[in-house]
Design goal:
- The protein is of the alpha+beta class.
- It is built from two helices and two strands, in the order αββα.
Length: 64
């Protein structure tokens, strides 16, 4: 079963012992809370490269 096929209850059970962090950000006077669940399923180098590439591309074509 992949993560996309799992129900919320199954995901909660599978990742209940994984670290969780919360951060609150204020954007234009409105508070947003971001909850991060670390499940260890992503390659950090690959994700950071992808995000940097997408941002650089967007800046190059003027979409930022």
């Amino acid at each position: 079963m992949t993560t996309n096929d799992a129900t919320l209850a199954e995901l909660n059970e599978r990742y209940k012992d994984k670290p969780v962090s919360e951060a609150t950000y204020e954007i234009d006077g409105q508070l947003f809370t971001v909850t991060s669940h670390y499940v260890g399923e992503k390659n950090l180098d690959k994700e950071l490269y992808r995000m940097a590439f997408e941002r650089a591309y967007a800046e190059t074509v003027g979409q930022v």
